[in-house]
Amino acid sequence: MKAIVTLFERILQRVNINLRELGFDATPYIHIIPIGQMIKFYGFYGITPHHPLNFKFKNSNLAGSYFLGRCQVNNAILYKSDIRGDELKKRGDIFQYNDYKIPVVDNEEIQVEDSLLIKTLVHNFSHDPESLERFFIKDTISMNHSNIHGSPCEGCFIGAFATADLTTMHDCVIGNFAYIQAEEISHLNIPHGTIWVRNPGKFNFYYQHPQEKLNEYVYFSAGSPPQGKLIDFVADRKEAFQRVFDVVNIEQLIPVPSSASLDRYSVTRGQTTIGENVLVAQRAYLQNASLGKGVNVQENCFVINSNLEGNDVAAHGAKIIEADLGSMVFVGFNSFLRGRPDNRLTIGENCIVMPHTIIDVNGAVNIPPDYLVWGLIQSEEDLETHSISIEEFTKVETRLAMGNMFFEGNGAAFIEAFQDRIRHILKANGAFFNGAEKKGHAQKNQYISFNTIQPYPEGNKKGIFPTIVIKP
Questions:
Q1: Fewest C-beta atoms under 10 Å: which of 68, 262, 357, 365?
Q2: What whole-number distance in Å separates Cα of residue 311 and Cα of residue 330?
């Protein structure tokens, strides 16, 4: 195991060097990770005609569930990571950025170098116009249940339950449960619980979770493991995934329509039903869940005792408990929506629940159709300063302040950007498949062939995977 320890320490040193100007030391955060855990898992990858292969693993520890499209991995530890490659740019594509139309000259690859990703989801849909052919994660450490979504990273530390979304980041620290979508940032230390969505010249949305209340849900300090209600929620259901990863060939427990896809590495329990064109991704957890036509439940999502009417999107890491969602509801990354059995949470159609929203109340909550919702909601009264009708929000032309939320710019442009993205997600995932046309991931992911790979079983290289090149 000597090689893993050496790799571990080298990555730590590289990250600390990049973050020296911020005075940030990642050492006490990652030394709580038991290195011994990283040798207990096999890696796996999927083969389909729709995911071009170019796998190159070199001196790497790929601990746990692993799914790649076209990629390279050099000297990186990827602990329990899910890495997708289903929306990589292809040679000959034209990338539109503002008024620029930029040709893609080579097939895009995912490159992970000198990085440690701890229970982190990586999705490759990158919007960086400066690196069209390479989606890179370099000298970066990300912690428990974070998301790197289309965000090239260099020299970064990403906290627990944090999300970097469509943002190129250089030498930045992203705090716990922070969500960043800001095009490009450099040398910033983003506080815990920050929700920041910026499109320069068009709009700027900013919300700050109250720290004391956020600590009840996610708290992670140097030298101690992460704790809080979100950590406990995931930990309480950890064992449900054990059999999924222990058994190579596992039977499907519920009927799945021919136009839908239920991932081999998801968990279903109780009276769960899957409608047409539904996509349920890897590590999703469903219990007594009703998913109507076109619903998209992404990686690491939990849907428990809840009904999703149709064409709803539960983005990476979202948790929906004791809730009823109308059609076309978007639930953002790592949101935590919890009703109660006798006081359910109801969200009307066409609502946008912002990423990293927490709705956790004991009484019944009914959010009307066509509303924008954000922040921390622990009582019915909190909705007054944490929600607004989409119609009213589109009228904002300068600025708006509600509680801890500050917005400046064009409200209509902000809403249009979200709605365009929701339509893209649904289209890409096959929600609009008509039986012959408009196929998406729900239809293309039905026949994945999974293959396992094993590390060295003993000696100095124990836990390290050998150099592997896999091509078509």
A1: 365
A2: 9
**Helices vs. strands in the chain: H and E counts, helices first:** 9, 47
Q: 468 pLDDT band (50/70/90 cuts)?
A: confident
Phi, psi of 204 (to 5 degrees): -150, 110
Which distant-in-sequence residues (6+ apart) come within 8 Å of 384 by Cβ? none
> pLDDT at residue 249 above 70?
no
Contact indicator for 444, 430 with CB cutoff of 8 Å: yes
What domains can you pick out in the chain, each with its CATH number? 2-234+448-470 (2.160.10.10), 259-444 (2.160.10.10)
Question: Predicted confidence band at 432 (pLDDT cuts at 50, 70, 90)?
Answer: very high
Measured distance CA(60)–CA(262) in Å, rounded:
30
- Return the pLDDT at 449: 79
Contacts with 35 (C-beta within 8 Å, 6 or more apart), sequence order: 1, 4, 5, 8
% of the chain surpassing 70 pLDDT: 98
Alpha carbon separation from 89 to 124, 308, 336 (Å, rounded)? 9, 31, 32
What's at 73, amino acid-wise? V
Dihedral, 118, 123, 128, 130 alpha carbons, nearest 10: 70
CA distance 16 to 290: 46
Global pTM reads 0.95
Find out whether 338 and 354 touch, Cβ atoms under 8 Å. no
Question: Token pair for residue 127?
Answer: 């919007």
The string of pLDDT tens digits covering residues 278-298 is 999 989 999 999 999 999 999
Query: pLDDT value at position 466?
Result: 81
Apex CA 164: angle with CA 161 and CA 168, to 5°? 160
